[in-house]
Amino acid sequence: MRCVISSRAGQVLAQGTLILHKADDGELRLDLQTDGGRLLQGGIIDPDGDMTSASEALFRQFFEAWGMSDLTLTVKIR
Predict the structure, then answer these.
(1) What dihedral do alpha carbons 71, 52, 31, 3 form, nearest 10°?
(2) How far apart are CA 38 and CA 17, in angstroms?
């Protein structure tokens, strides 16, 4: 899925793709691959498919990458 990460002010910080990576043990991780080549690793998706904790971990990586909170992730499904 294509996505855009924006600041509170609406500035586009990155564009990229949300992806699922499968670990050797079969667990799925929610990650963001930016168009600039940066991979931000989110958390592990719960066995029941709930992505709450995985997305919270990904948003913590957004803070690490851009040094700001209250960012918006907009997903575009084609």
Answers:
(1) -50
(2) 11
What is the pTM assigned to this prediction? 0.85
- pLDDT per position as a tens digit, 54-73: 999 999 999 999 999 889 99
Query: Which structure tokens are listed for 62?
Result: 């957004």
| Chain Cα centroid distance, residue 17 | 8
7, two tokens: 């600041």
Read off the pLDDT of residues 20-48 as tens digits, 9 standing for 90 and up. 999 888 999 999 999 999 999 999 999 99
Q: Are 31 and 39 in contact (CB under 8 A)?
A: yes
